[in-house]
Design goal:
Blueprint (H helix, E strand, L loop, with lengths): L1 H16 L8 H11 L5 H10 L4 E3 L16 H11 L25 H8 L5 H10 L5 H12 L11 H7 L4 H12 L11 H7 L8 H10 L1 H5 L3 H8 L3 H12 L22 E6 L2 E6 L7 E3 L1 H8 L5 H38 L1 H6 L9 H8 L3 H8 L3 E4 L2 E4 L7 E5 L5 E5 H14 L8 H10 L6 H10 L5 H8 L6
Amino acid sequence: MATTRLEMQQSSRTATKTKTKVTLAPVALQGLEILSLPVSALPDYISKAAESNPLLEVNYDDDLLAFSEMPNENAYEDMLASAEQNDDQPEPLIRPRGDAPLPGLAGDWDFSRIQDDCMETETLREYLQFQASCLDLSAAMLKLVDAVIEGISDDGYYTGDVGVVAFEHGAELASADEALRIVQGLQPAGVGARSLSECLELQVDERDPHRDALLCLVREHLGDLAENKLTVLAKALGVDMEDMLDMKRTVLEMNPRPGAAFYQKTDARYIIPDLIVRKLDTRLTVEVTGMMEKCLSLNSDYVSMLEGAGLDAEARGYLAEKREEADRLLRNLDHRSRTLERFGAFLVEKQFRFFLMGGGALSPMNMQQAADALGVHVSTISRTVQGKYVQTPWGTFPLKMFFTRSLPRTDSEGVGGGVSSFEIKKMIKAIVDEEDKEHPLSDAKITEVLNGRGVEIKRRTVAKYRESLGIEPQARRRWAVKPGIDD
């Protein structure tokens, strides 16, 4: 009997461990992928899909995939010739509205901007190499210096390894170290440093009366200086408070990124909103950008071939498969648009005050509320808002911004309610903006102010929100504004 009971228990445990494995169909997987795509990624996705499926036809005249006509090859030369002919003519102070573009140009292309963007600009490495070439260095040392310069980052720090430089050039390690010292002696001051403290150390003037104390300060006490512990620092460095304040000002005037002044072309990041909310008097309208009705369609010629006679079995099977893939893609694109449209309508209804008035009028909202309102799973809402933006009368915002925590709030009459984390962040920013700059508020004091306004919030939460706003802590705000003595 005992054996039978044991077998039953084992059988029960085995049954409990059994799990259901869910496998999503290809149409569902593609639907989730398309739903997650922001509108900026749709053109590339659609173009690739059309390349692999002859039944899909892309309309490049649609706004989503449209492109402007490029100017002809001789336009720039024509513009220069025209400019030379008009050199002797006085330039009008005010150009009449509606003047025609320069002859030879297609549309309103601004070739001067194109030329400026494409022009070569002196980089930090080129500037360093020019200075090194002016020094009286041997050919072997100049090669080592050039190798060190190749390891200089855009910020001006040396990110390479002098040991590797010595090995690759068959030189002594001492020679590679000397090459680094030569680079560190070039302009801008601080270039070639391997750490922040070394960067500031290289900027200490040899003629400074507090040179030794300054070197000790930047080498060993940057953390205390950041926290404005001036009394402690003055005692550790053996200087009086007046000298300590002068040293602090000197460090503040140093450049922690000596290479930042050189022009470095950065990648531009463009944001294309997926939703556009417009304000018409007291009404709000929602528009989904990148609607696919005109952008992508079925190729009528191939559809006629499939529906007609005369195709062999293999060709008909291939076209039928591609027709199914095309229909699936079109359905998923339509589902994405409808889901975004429904979410936009819910968002406008839920955050009506924000879209109508702007400012901090943002109501608390979570993804589960949106999922319940749309009748979908919360993961669908997560994919719907992922990497997407909404354009409003008050600016363009990420959709995720509208999902905010609700913290308790009690008004002056003792009536409870909720306040969003977004609104609390705006309150914290306003409190810091209005504080006495010479005596900035601590996180505890900001918490007291918010509690006094009926917001039930902890100091840890205030610190987290302050950091997310990019606001420095109390000591650093006090340090950045005016030198003073720590409490």
